[in-house]
Amino acid sequence: MIIIGERINGMFKDIGQAVRDMDPKPLQEWAIKQQEAGANYLDINTGPNTDDQVTAMKWMVQVVQEVSDLPLCLDSTNYDAIEAGLELCKKPAMINSCPAERPKIERVFPMAVKHNAKIIGLTMDAKGIPKNADNRIALAMELVAAADEFGLPMEDLFIDPLILPVNVAQDHAPEVMEAIRQVKLLSNPAPKTVLGLSNVSQKSPDRPLINRTYLAMVMACGLDSIIADANDDDLMATAATGEILLNQSVYCDSYVKVFKSR
Amino acid sequence: MAFAVVKERYSSKVNEVVLGATSEKGGTRSHVIKVGGQTTLPYLHFEGEVPNKPIIAMEVTDVEPNWPAPLKEMFKDVYNDPTAWAKKCVEEYKADVIYIVLNGADPDGANKTPEECTETVKAILKAVGVPLIVKGCGEEEKDNEVLTKIAEECAGENLMIANAEQENYKSLAAACMVHKHTLIALSPLDINICKQLNILINEMGLPLDKIVIDPMIGGLGYGIEYAYSIMERVRMGALQGDKMLSMPMVCTVGYEAWRAKEAYSEGEEFQSWGEQSFRGPLWEAMTAATLIQTGADILLMRHPQAVKLAQKNIAELMESNKY
Question: Beta strands of chain A (E only): which ranges?
C-alpha cells in the first residue's frame, strides 16, 4: 500500500496561513511528521485562497524538499502550477489529478511523460461523478486509452474511482469497491488504483473508524494506494495488517513497526 | 512482428555487503569481496543487474574433523593444521573466502579457550589474504565468549561472524557493531523468524548492510525444496522493497550435503550408487547448483571437486544473457 500523506494542504488552517505568510515551518514540520509515520509520498496542495498558485506551488515544493526526500504528489486544478512544481521536483512526482475530459487529458498526459511523473486519473468528466461502477469503469477506460496514446507507462497511471462521504452518498461505497476490482481488468499490465480515503468519512462523528474499516475493505478489492492521514496510527496499522493478510508482505512479529519504516 | 522481451521492473534491490577490510579500512586483507546488489532474480542479466557473482567459502576446522573418506583424502596432509589447510584452499582450489569453524571451542570436546581460538583465527589471517567467515562451535554461551573475543582482537577486519539466532543475537550484534564486523543471522527454515531476527539485530544498531541471512538449508534429497522456496521468497521480498529481507544469503552447502547418506556412505550396502569418491562431491556440487539457482550469494563448501564444479557453474551463469 502506497501512502500519500494528505496533510500539506492549504485547506488545513495552519498550512493555508503558512502559505499566505510564506512561513516554511508548518510545512516542514508536517513533512517530517508524515515521513516518520510511514508516508511514501507527500501531497502538496496550495489551497483555494492563494492568489498566485504557480508561485505558491513552487515555494511549497522547495521548502518541503529541504527537509524530506520523499517524492511529492502535486495537487492542484491549476496545471501551470503543477508544471512549475514538476520542474523543481528532485524525484519523479505524481500529478493529482486529471479527470477523463479530453482537453485536460491533452494538457496533463504529455506533461507527465515529459517529467517522468505519475498521474492520478479521476473517473469523472464534465458531467460529474458517476453513480455506479460501470460508468466509473467507462471513464477509467478513457484514461487507460490516453496512457496508451501518450506513452505513459500503465503502472504510472493511478485510477481514482472517487469515493463520496458515506453520510450523504451511502450507495457509492460498494460501487467504488466494484470499480477497483474491474480497473485491474482494463489492461495488462493493469493501471494502479488510488482513493482519497478521508473523503468517505466527511462530517461523520467517528472518522478514523470509518476510514480504517473502508481501507480494509478496499484493500481486499486490490487497492494500491491511498491519500490519507499518515499520522493516524490505527489507520497505518490497518494498512500494515491488510498487507500481511493479503500475503503481500512477509509476516514477522514486528510487522506494524517496519511498515512505517519502509 | 518484432519479439518484445517481457521485463519485470522491481522497486528495490539486494543489499551489497562487503567481506573483509584492507588496510585503508583498518583491516589486513589483500582485497575485499562484495556480494549482493542484484536488481533482478538470479542471473536474469537481460532484466536487471547482477553486479557480483556468488562466492565460495571453503570450510576449514580448527580441530581434526570426523569427515567422510573423500574429504579426508583431499586434506589428509593439512587435516591437523588449519593454517596450512586454509592456504591450500586458497592457493590450490581458488577459494574466494575461508570459512573457519571453531569446533575446538566445544566444552564437550577440546574445550579450547577464547584466546586459543583467537590465535587460530589470527594465524589464518596472517597466512591468507582473503576475507574470513568465522563460526563458533554451536554452544551458545561458549560461542558468545569466543566470538566476542575474536571480534575484539580482530577489530577492523570485517570478519563475517556466525551465527546470531533469535534467542541469542545481542552479544554478537553488539560485538559486530563495536568492532566493525558483519553478522550472519540464522533462522530455522522460517521466513517469519528470518525477518524478525533481522529487525531485532537492526534495532540494536547494526546497519542492514552488515547483516547476511542464513536461511538454513536441507541438502539435496533432504528438504532442499523447502530451503529453495524460502530463499525464493526472501529474494522476491528484497526486490519488492522489503528492507528486512534485502540481505544476501549464505548456505551451509558442504555441511548439509555430507550429512546425506548418499554422500557419506562408503557404498558396501549400496553398490549400485557407484564410487563414493565421485558420488560424494557430486552430491555437494548438486546441492550448491540448486541453491545458486534460487539466489545463494555465499556457498560454504568442503570438497575441492565440488568447488570446481560450482565455480564452473557460476562462471557460466555470470555470462551475460542480455538481448
Answer: 2-5, 41-45, 72-75, 94-99, 118-122, 157-160, 192-196, 225-228
